[in-house]
Task: inverse folding
């Protein structure tokens, strides 16, 4: 693609979370990302999104792609449809980004990646926690050598917020907290400490009214030698609930970074301590407490368009997200065996 051409966006799925994608695309229009059509198999949702954002609406993705010039299909349906919908885009040579979870199983994720490769189609996963302003600040502090080499970390996502109200399907999932939010925090662990050699996990179902695990405690040995603890629960009972923030401590051989509720970062380097507020601003369409997640959508969408224009993979390309998804699967396997598990690895050579 030329340096800064218009990128035509087709939104697939106009449900609960897709509203944030739609608002983010509206904000990115001045930067050349132009929402050109929306699609939802629910006619009312499709029509409502089309009316709200002033674009044609469809109830079928293939029809949308065949009738409107789309450069990037933004798929925010649910994981059970990602393989079918990513294939519709790939077969038409249309770039696609699918929401997390990439798919229901490792095998399905691999099939989506290999289908896109077969068609030389650009493919990414909308894994947005690493694009949030606060997490970018943590990454910058590490990149600046503030703490030396990271050697230990605890990444904690603990809430009692009623996630089931906006996403009622979560109560019925056969795999829950690791596949739904642990996937974000595991991606952050990779983002901050690099690839993983070994995963150990214990899970709990602490809410009797849901089907699957709502609490996971995961320990990982990274290739660098660092050790991380990743925690996630929807069953916390605490005041000052940090939803949907990731709280963390990262220690290195030169200092430490601590992020506490309210996106406050404390950096200790060479014996000196600095504090800063690292959260992003409220936007015209964001509201507390979801604003932390919502602003990450804007930055993630901007990244997707930028890399597509450059002809480069997204940081969270389909192939990259396989490495995060492998941690999800290893965690579930370890929770069953109570043994440490080596994450699967995919390579183009098979
Ligand atoms: P939802 O059920 O509210 O919305 C999904 C929409 O997709 C529905 O309107 C449905 O009609 C539509 N749809 C399903 N299959 C379709 C198809 N084949 N063609 C066209 N439309 C189709 O779900 P949600 O809560 O908005 O979640 C959507 C995705 O976003 C999930 O994968 C979820 O994990 C993810 N999510 C991500 C974040 C985040 O990035 N932090 C937060 C919440 C949800
Ligand atoms: O961010 C997400 O992926 C949502 C959650 C419930 C964790 O907010 O599903």
Result:
């Amino acid at each position: 693609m030329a340096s800064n051409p218009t990128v035509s966006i087709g939104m697939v799925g106009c449900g609960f979370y897709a509203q944030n994608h739609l608002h983010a695309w509206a904000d990115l229009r001045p930067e050349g990302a132009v929402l050109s059509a929306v699609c939802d198999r629910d006619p009312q949702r499709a029509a409502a999104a089309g009316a709200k954002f002033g674009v044609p609406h469809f109830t079928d993705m293939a029809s949308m792609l065949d009738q409107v010039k789309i450069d990037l299909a933004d798929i925010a349906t649910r994981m059970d449809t990602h393989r079918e919908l990513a294939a519709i885009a790939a077969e038409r040579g249309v770039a696609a980004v699918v929401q997390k979870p990439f798919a229901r199983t490792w095998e399905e994720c691999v099939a989506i990646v290999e289908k896109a490769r077969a068609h030389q189609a650009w493919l990414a996963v909308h894994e947005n926690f690493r694009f949030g302003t606060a997490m970018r600040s943590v990454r910058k502090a590490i990149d600046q050598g503030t703490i030396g080499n990271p050697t230990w970390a605890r990444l904690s996502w603990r809430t009692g917020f009623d996630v089931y109200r906006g996403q009622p399907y979560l109560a019925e999932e056969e795999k829950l907290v690791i596949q739904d939010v642990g996937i974000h925090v595991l991606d952050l662990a990779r983002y901050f400490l690099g690839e993983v050699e070994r995963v150990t996990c214990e899970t709990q179902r602490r809410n009797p009214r849901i089907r699957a695990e709502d609490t996971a405690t995961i320990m990982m040995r990274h290739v660098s030698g660092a050790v991380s603890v990743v925690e996630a629960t929807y069953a916390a009972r605490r005041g000052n609930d940090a939803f949907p923030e990731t709280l963390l401590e990262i220690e290195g051989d030169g200092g430490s970074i601590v992020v506490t509720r309210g996106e406050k970062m404390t950096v200790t380097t060479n014996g000196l301590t600095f504090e800063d507020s690292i959260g992003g601003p409220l936007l015209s369409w964001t509201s507390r407490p979801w604003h932390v997640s919502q602003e990450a959508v804007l930055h993630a969408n901007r990244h997707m368009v930028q890399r597509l224009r450059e002809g480069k993979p997204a940081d969270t390309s389909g192939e990259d997200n396989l490495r995060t998804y492998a941690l999800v699967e290893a965690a579930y396997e370890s929770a069953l065996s109570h043994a440490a598990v080596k994450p699967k690895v995919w390579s183009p050579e098979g």
User: Anything to note?
Assistant: The chain has a mean pLDDT of 97. The pocket of nicotinamide-adenine-dinucleotide (ligand 1) is lined by residues 12-18, 39-42, 45, 61, 76-79, 81, 85, 99-100, 128, 167, 293 (CB under 6 Å). The chain has two domains: 7-121, 130-287+324-337. The longest strand covers residues 150-158.
